[in-house]
Each structure stands twice: as structure tokens, then as C-alpha cells.
Amino acid sequence: xxxxxxxxxxxxxxxxxxxxxxxxxxxxxxxxxxxxxxxxxxxxxxxxxxxxxxxxxxxxxxxxxxxxxxxxxxxxxxxxxxxxxxxxxxxxxxxxxxxxxxxxxxxxxxxxxxxxxxxxxxxxxxxxxxxxxxxxxxxxxxxxxxxxxxxxxxxxxxxxxxxxxxxxxxxxxxxxxxxxxxxxxxxxxxxxxxxxxxxxxxxxxxxxxxxxxxxxxxx
Amino acid sequence: xxxxxxxxxxxxxxxxxxxxxxxxxxxxxxxxxxxxxxxxxxxxxxxxxxxxxxxxxxxxxxxxxxxxxxxxxxxxxxxxxxxxxxxxxxxxxxxxxxxxxxxxxxxxxxxxxxxxxxxxxxxxxxxxxxxxxxxxxxxxxxxxxxxxxxxxxxxxxxxxxxxxxxxxxxxxxxxxxxxxxxxxxxxxxxxxxxxxxxxxxxxxxxxxxxxxxxxxxxxxxxxxxxxxxxxxxxxxxxxxxxxxxxxxxxxxxxxxxxxxxxxxxxxxxxxx
Lengths: 219, 272
What we know:
The complex is a heterodimer of chains A (219) and B (272).
Chain A: H1 14-47, H2 51-65, H3 69-84, H4 90-115, H5 119-127, H6 132-162, H7 174-185, H8 188-218
Helix pairs in contact in A: 1-2, 1-4, 1-7, 2-4, 3-4, 4-6, 5-6, 6-8, 7-8
Chain B: E1 2-4, E2 14-25, E3 28-39, E4 43-47, H1 54-61, E5 69-74, E6 77-80, H2 90-98, E7 100-103, H3 115-126, H4 131-144, H5 160-172, E8 178-182, H6 190-205, E9 209-213, H7 217-223, E10 226-231, E11 234-240, H8 241-246, H9 251-261, H10 268-271
Keywords (chain A): Amino-acid transport, Cell membrane, Membrane, Transmembrane, Transmembrane helix, Transport
Membrane topology (chain A): Multi-pass membrane protein
Pfam families (chain A): BPD_transp_1
């Protein structure tokens, strides 16, 4: 088969592509931050010895970990409004589902980081008379965070990839813009190749950073 | 559970008082009704086979382990566990612990802080001492344990004996009323034990009230006023250090000590 590659036409869509890239990165940052906050809350609550708080949260985490994020996205956009009687915009539905989905994984990373700290460290902080918050802030978290960073970066990489699912709800992310351009130009090969390349350019450095951090922690 | 501060009876000189303290982990009763008094400036050595409850008893003294019942008093702070099962609040526990210093078998230095930061941590975070002031105190304490030149080194660059001396300085920085040592030399290479014991000996000479869980019988005999021999969660025998170690009254004490007199590690520890 002979195919005439021609990327030139994409230049006239640079604004669309720019908007798509901005949506993709913006949603990644927003949902990563929100997910991290959700994850912290869930992790600390599930580490508390209060079953009444920890059990439902553990259940919630399992629900989000054991169902596909695409199903969650569609469920929150189409099904949740029926339940709560409030219409959600695609962007809001996407934000909620990606944040909660990310949060479910972040919480496990954070919980794992915290429990990996030697109980002797807790003892030493308590013996000095530290209260719970100071113990977390001064002793446990600084040590745990170091161990959490590589898996958190990896999760952020997945988070960015998952934003491509936004296109299903017609949120104008990178992939959705690609679909628009394709339907206008009938040139899927160049368009989707470029979309893939943009994802790669953003993500490749992130995975390298994660690799370096992991190597540094191994010492 | 209740706490009281100023009105605790000071009619006697006891710095530490345990009254009918009981603790069990699940079905296992680890402390069976222990009562103990340590006078101000007294040095008590807790000895006994592993599993005897001596470390648990020590951890109860600063409430790292909470007893099920009994009263624990250190200085003017009293924790009463006799009636009710409500746990003390985080704030009260912290205040109580701030007045006792504890040294652990595995040092438990904070690996993400330099030596001097370790020593400053308690005063700065808990007592809200100004950092420059805390730094001066910390330097003086490092001087005392002979490690002033290691102030800016990371803990993992130190030998075990040095780590333990930093841990002692860290505990002393809180200006504690009592010091608790939980097998402070058990994780050390034999040639490093002496430097740590020298610091403990110096504290005893300065009149610090101390409770030591130890396997160093010769040291216990030399430094402690009182030796308490525990087995299976009860105090089998206690009395003046030399008397208990040289001429124990109870057969169980004799049997335990015989492992040390023979110069070997206690075989009893393995099956206790």
C-alpha cells in the first residue's frame, strides 16, 4: 500500500490541538491534586482504629479499584444524576470520577507508605511527648513521602492516560480534538499519530523521573 | 480514667509509683498485678527472662503501652486506670510522656534528621523552645555524651554505641524527671557496650531517677540500687542490687542468674 504522509494540514488545527492539550494536562493536574487529597483522607481514616469510619472507606476504595474507570465515568454522568436529581456537566462528572478513581489508588500508596515506617519511629516520637499530628508531620510523613513518590508519579502517569476517556463525554481533551479533526479532514493516520506523539512527549519525561527517583531510593 | 497534677500526694519521696498494674495481650496476661516504687534518684534494674513482662512494664511507665488497670504515677503526673476503661486522651498521654525519657534497644533515631536535629526535635516541637536555644542545649548534651563533633552527621553514619548515646542525649533534651532504658545495650556489639554504660553510670551519679531493663548483670549490680526479678508477669523477688544478684532468696532467681554466672547467654530466654 502506498500512502502519502502529510502532516501539514494539522497546522491549521493548532488552536484545537492546543486546547486539547491544555484540557488533558489541566484535568490531570486537577484530578491528581484532588485525588491525592481524597487519598490522604481515606488513608488516614482507614488507618484509624475506628471500624465505623474505616470499613465503609475501605469498601469505597475497593469499588473504585475493581470497576473500570470508563464504567465509573459513564455511571457518574448518566446514572448518578438520576439518583441525586442534579444534572452534572460532562466536565464535572469527569472531574468527580477521575478524582475518586485516582484517590482510591493514591490512598493505597499513602497507606502503604505510612505502614512501612518502623513502629520504633512512632514509639520514639511518642516517647518525646509528640501528639498525633506532630508525629505525622515531623516523623512519619517525611520518611513515608520519600517512599511514596515513585508510585505516586507512576499513578500520575496513569491519571494522565485516563483523561483520554473524557472524550467519551465530549470533554474537549486531546483525543476528542483528534476525533473532531479526523471527522473534518478524513486523515486519521496523521491526526491520531500526532495525538499519540503528544501524549508520549508529555509522559516519557515523567516515567524517566519516576525511574530516577526509584533508583535513588534503592540506596 | 482521670488525670491529676498538682494535688498528688508528695508525702514520700517516691518518684515513680505503680499500683496494682495489670496488662494482657489477648488471652495472655503479661503483667499480673505489679506494684513498684522508685524513690527520687533511685536506679532500678528490671531483670528476668524474655517474655517475663519487664519490657511491657517499662513501656507502661511512659504509657507507650496502656495498662488495663492500676495507677501509674511519675513525679506529679498520675494516670489512673482503676475505674472504667476509657482511654486517656492523646493530649494527656503526650504531656505525661514528655516528662519521661526513653531509650530503646534499636535506638530509633530519626533517620531523616541530622544528629543535632534529633536532639532538638523534642524541645522544638513539643516544648516550643526557640531553635537557637534548643541548639545550644543540644550541643551541650552532645558534649556530655562525647559526640559534639558528630552534631551535623546523619545517624546512619554512626556506630551502634554512638547512635545509642545520641538517643540518650535526645531523651535528656526534654529535661525528663525519669529515664527509662529498654535493653539499651542489647543490640550493640560487645566492644560498644561500655561507652553506653559509661553514660548511664554518669546519669546515675548525677542523681537521675532511672529504670533499666537489662541483661547486663554486672552493670545492674554496680549501678542499680534495687534489682527487680520478674518472671511470667509477676515480681518474683526484689531488693538491694547486690543482695538479689549475689544471694537471691528465690529458686527461680537463682536459676535465672546461674545462666549469667556460667558466662553464657541465658538459655532460659529461649523457652520463656
